[in-house]
Amino acid sequence: MYCGRIQNALTDGKVIQAAFAPLVDGDLYDRAQLVLSGRGQPDTRRRRVNVDFPLRRFVRCGLCGSPLTGSHSTGRSARYAYYHCMNRECRRDNIPKVDLDKAFCDLLGDLSDVARVNLTKFRRKVLEKWYSKKGDALDDQCRLKERLKKLERQRKTLLDKLVDGTIGDDVYKVKEKQLSLDIALVKSQRNDSKLDEFEIEEALNSAEFILNNPERLWIDANAEIRQRFQKLLFPDGLSYTKADGFGTGVSCCVYELLGQIGTDMSDMAPPRGIEPLFPG
Q1: How many domains does the chain have?
Q2: Got the DSSP string for 49-110?
Q3: Are 230 and 251 in contact (CB under 8 A)?
Q4: What does the radius of gyration of the chain's CA atoms come to, in whole angstroms?
């Protein structure tokens, strides 16, 4: 029943697909059975999410470029967590987990400082262009609505002329066909010019909260969301050494844009919509 398969005497022992909808995908069911039987392994992506070392594999060694991994060492009275380079031939830095996590939080704080400087200006310009675009769309809708009414009146008049014998069937069919095409075109243009309902103020409020609080969001998130979030902010990861700290990384395009905003944003492209930074 789980995967929608039937196998019994009525099928001569063959496995057939049931007519009812399965509860889970067949491939997922097969993998789950392998794991339960001890012949398979769980999804490795899940195993890579490490609660103790969220920056593992995301941060690279600034000396050789290899990913950092994490481990614990046991002292006389306690266990200590460290990040270290995976390359055994590298002059490895043992970086205390607390130090690297704090350095990353400081980096996120620097991003929010950049955002706060220009977010007000960015918000104002986005709203100006959004409502300008919305006004243009409403003007187009009004113009096309009147055009559609005119064409409908012409079609009705054409039908009246056919009924009273002013025109014949051949003329009516030709002109009616052309009017129908014109009406279909105008309806298509109305759909194209229609601006989807979108709560721009609510979207901007959410975006501002995320952009202003990356450090808080990262600290409060669980291990998997942390890794997704940090990958979103720095798609290519980061490099780090104890001596120099984090190297220059390519940050999220939104922060790049905010950092480049000057006194003139007149060339900023009109937004088609503002999407959430990450799911949830």
Answers
A1: 2
A2: --SS-TTTTTEEETTT-PBEEEEEEE-SS-EEEEEEES-TTS----EEHHHHHHHHHHHHHH
A3: no
A4: 31
122 touches 274 (CB < 8 A): no
Its domain, for residue 82, covers: 59-99
Q: Does 67 reside within a domain?
A: yes
pTM above 0.70, yes or no: no
Q: Give a yes or no: residue 63 inside a domain.
A: yes
179 CB contacts (<8 Å, ≥6 apart)?
151, 154, 155, 158
Residues contacting residue 164 through CB under 8 Å, at least 6 positions apart = none
DSSP annotation of 273 reads: -
Decide if 79 is inside a domain: yes
- Distance between start and end Cα atoms, the chain: 32
143 domain-assigned: no
pLDDT tens, 145-161?
A: 899 999 999 999 999 98
User: Identity (one letter) of the amino acid at 267?
Assistant: D
Pseudo-torsion of CA 86, 92, 97, 102, nearest 10°? -110
pLDDT in tens, 230-254: 888 888 889 998 888 888 765 666 7
